[in-house]
## 1
Amino acid sequence: MNKRKYYAFYPIFSPAFAVMRIAGKKIEEYAKQYLGGRMLDAGCGDRRKRYLVRRYVKEYVGMDIKKKKVDVAGTLYSLPFKEGSFDSVLCTSVLEHLNKPEKALREIYRVLRHGGNAVFTVPLFWHLHEEPHDYYRFTRYALENIFKDAGFEINKIEPLSGFWTTFLCEFLYYLRETLGGKNPVYCVFALFLNPLIMLLHPFDRSFRFTWLYIVSVRKP
């Protein structure tokens, strides 16, 4: 499978063009370092993340509450797997949509084998989305608490952006919402700002304004 298939979901005129490339690159980096063996993609959606991680794991299992385009249908509050069923777990941009994220973390802990790693992405600054099921934003200190309370050891918590990346991406989402995705003004801004964001991102170090954290944890 080719990771280009993943990025094809986010063309140049998408307000997600830059953020998904930044996040995708980091997810792939963490997959290489932390994921492997039999891996659960918890809250996989349409399983598009498999294009990023599949070559690093022996078996990919995509699970979501939706029954279409998943390997297993189920809820993160009661995962349909035995204890220690997976060598690693991926869970991206899911915890903010759960009204009981701590319960889901305990379930992920249960199905992960001892010594196994899990990788999560969670937002700090981001607009409302997938309403009404959008409940939380997390600081790094909140993340430390909820993962430790679930029993995990923290390998790493890393912010993915600074102020300008967050601001310019959100500005594009604002323009699309107010003008429409096919509006010529929006399209010109997207065509200009998306490459600019990618150019500025490596130098944007004001991490207190990150839109997203990536977290790696381990079950001892």
## 2
Amino acid sequence: MLSIGELAKKANISRRTLHYYDEIGLLKPTKVDDKNYRYYDQNALLRLQEIRLLKSIGFTLRQIRQMVGQPVVRADEKMWITSLQEQIKIIQKEKENLERKQYYLQSTVHAIQVTGQVKANEIFELITSLEDREVENGVIVATFPDQLFTDEEMEILQQLPLLGSKDPRLVELIELIQQIRQNIHKPVSDTIVQGFAEALHVQIVRLFKGNINLVEKYWKLITPNENEAPTVYGFDYKIVSYINQMLEYYYMQQE
């Protein structure tokens, strides 16, 4: 048995905290003698480790009390392993939740950068549409209709940079779209605009591995009709139409 002072020292926790845990029913002493001295068995160390871990990842004491359940009977090797494995599961779940939150925040940053505006309703709708989809390696993978693309084309599409990702190619693409949007009032024949057209052409060839047929199929898929919501966030009818005209003029000059 460990006295409350010995347990506090071993667990690097204050006696006051142990008294409070006893008071709220989170960690009851194994024995209280006739002088009201509290004593704990070795199971208390295991329970304290669980409590401290759960606190460190943001759970309240009330939530922890519900999670840890009844005291363990015997802190043998099997019990420790079981407890630690459960804690690993908790950490993994919390990690996934944090990854999803980080992805949402980064997607919001990218959405604002691409559109040049803060459209709260549209951003909320974007995040809501992603809530039921699985996060893989920190991003939500894009989906495409299988019947439209070959296996080879799907492989290329799955490698495209995604909003919310840390892909360095995305940074370049967003900066380019920002510049195009800022100059959308200029004629497509403008020298600066044609510089953007050339830069975008280079990016397109690189991203789609030179597969021009795939570029045309993909662009047709994401091109919205007038007054229609964009298929890819930020690529609304106005910007897509301008890019089409800009590139068309660029290709004419190359002939």
## 3
Amino acid sequence: MKILILSCNTGGGHNSAAKAIKEIFDEKGHTCNIMDVLSFGGQKASDLVCDAYIEMVKKAPQLFGKIYKMGNKVGQFNQENGGIRSPVYLVNKLYADALEEYIKQNNYDAVVCVHIFAAEAMTNLKKHERINIPFFFVATDYYCSPVLEETMPDKIFIAHKDSTFTYINHGIKPELLLATGIPVAKRFLTKQDKSQARTQLGLNASDQVFLLMSGSMGFGDLIDTTRYIFENGNENTRVIAITGHNEELYKNLQAEFKNETRLMLIGFTDKVSDYMDASDVLLTKPGGLSSTEALAKGIAIVHTAPIPGCESENVQFFTEHHLSLCAHDASDAGRLAVALMNEPFMREQILAAQDHFRCKDSAKQIVEFIEGR
């Protein structure tokens, strides 16, 4: 088979999901390509949209939350009033001609969308019978995306069976849904011995290791959280802070804790799996992918500073199922993390819940379903 995966550069999660699916397609001998769907409207347009998104969630997260809620209301209104299309659909259909040409020139057998923008563009092509191949949508969060109900995928792969009701509430037919879990790279599906992982990273077996992750774009206030952990820790306390692409945050942490030998400061890295293996407690923003990677690994999670909308919904799912704790602010994140470190029973409760709710081999399930079509 020849498969096209359409992603988007609004955060690292969508691309991580795309790579996880491609990893399995490649193993099975298929040809699989990943494309930024917005690039079909021109690279400048893609950069503009992605940069605007990143700036909004960093500097005006409450505004993003209001837009997210508005998207939910618009989608429901449109469904109730004769299938009127949303502005999201109208914008993404603008590059449908270029997308159609690319698909036909490369003779793809199926298209996998890991972002709502891609699903909207593919819906335009399908609605007007401009393509005759199936396309699929892969959820990268735990609740239904706004306006997903106006798209026309052949199947929707969702995060968990307990997420089903959020899709049905959006008017999506249950038979379209398949609970595979959110796809993560194979390296997150296995866990190396903690002492071995620590040796590789220069840590001691007796260390109490906190892993702080702010997302691929480096969102989140790590300074106050890090300070709280150090002030309430001991000589064995170690903090690994991963700042992503945020160079300013990296430099601020470096300056704030320049004399602190207990801090290991990391920028963007592809070794998150190894750092998780070596750590006792993870503090992370509640992105769908980062949370699922942690769930796959099995590590006590403290969720921090959710972006209103998809991330706050992810937190709701995780806390309702006892998969994580949720902090209200940076100091609260430190307090909860220290409490988890000092109370092994609390950590074990979270790990036991994760064992029950974990979806295994999600990417493999998705690929095998597509192969069977």
## 4
Amino acid sequence: MFRGSSSRDVALKALELALLLSLVSAFIYYEVSYVSGIDDYISDECWYVSAARNMLSKYLNIAPSELVKGDIVRVTIELQRPINGSRYSMWVSEVKEFIKRLGGTVVKDDTYYSFNSEGNYLPAVCADVPRENISRITRAPHLRKYSIGYCYPNANGILDYVNAEHPPLVKYVLGLSILLLGDRPVSWRLPSILSGAVILVLAYLSVKLIIGNRVGGFLGIAAAATLALDTLFRSLSMVAMLDIYVSLFTIITYFCALNGRLGASLIPLSAAFASKFSGAFTGLPLFFHGLRRTRSLVFIVKLVAIPVIALTMISTPIILHDGLESWWENSVVGAISWHLSIKTTGGPPKSAPWEWLIGANPFPLHYIYDESSGQWIADIIAKGNIPLYLLALALSIFILPVVKELKDSGLTYTFTWGVFSMYVAIWLAGART
């Protein structure tokens, strides 16, 4: 009887593991397959990837030539600013002729980097040039500067942009992926996809830890599967943007707290903060949980000090290059001002946090053309599972009187709505995104 029970346990564990591995593998395969066919920037990738590429050269002293392997080098040649459109067209023609003499091929010209009378464009030509001739790019007519790598987007000043309004950690990750895997879209997105896969595993482990026994494991699989099917999660896991990294470090922080490792939870909290300032929102539920668990002033001091110290250390290359005062003004004071401002006037839709729960004004990240309807439709969109969100809200209200009696003593509840309340707070403070 004991032996039969043991065999059944082994079989159930094997099934549980097989289901988890199958789910994670299918998720990775789907994400990679989908975005491999999109050979261009998706939404805000244009800002973060460009900034990562620029930071490699500006702050980490990595020469552009180190970013490319092979006989052909892709280069974006930024021109000086012309006085009008006709002058710009003439300059572009001269640069294209220059590239031809180098034995190169034009990839994008002024049909992509189109002139804008208000100046909101990049006067540039992107080309593939033989490696042995790359040093001659400095002789290009009307040259302002150039950068090696994937063609830059059409945005004014993008070759100098470092995305100072956001902390640098994710841009370091993107830069590393460019160095290791090459400067192409699927390389930028792979770390995001892997982050999504890790989140699925942690969701499974969290539910299994809370529920316990064999049922907990299979409920964990169900939770991970539900997350994998969420449109918002899938969308943000396949693009080189900041949000999935914040999600990753947030759930690691939560998982550490769930395991009673409050000290260790400060490390992923710091990483979330160094990825995007909203990553600090996890500090609110961690504060209440730590206060209840330890009643220690030391922990509260660490909760504030360690993320700040970590951000400063991660920003060291920027501080050494630009100076402490410049970093403080641009990356701290300026960033706070930017985050508390309206950023989408005339751009993508904005929605209040409570509107996320009903899917109001979702953020389209990418469009494809639907030949049957003759319209452009959003195939990658930041919109969650609305029925599930509303159900979670209803259940949260229902269990509020007994939240402390839950198996995790209300930790999951506190993390969920504590972080959400911080988004509500910054919205009320003036942030519009």
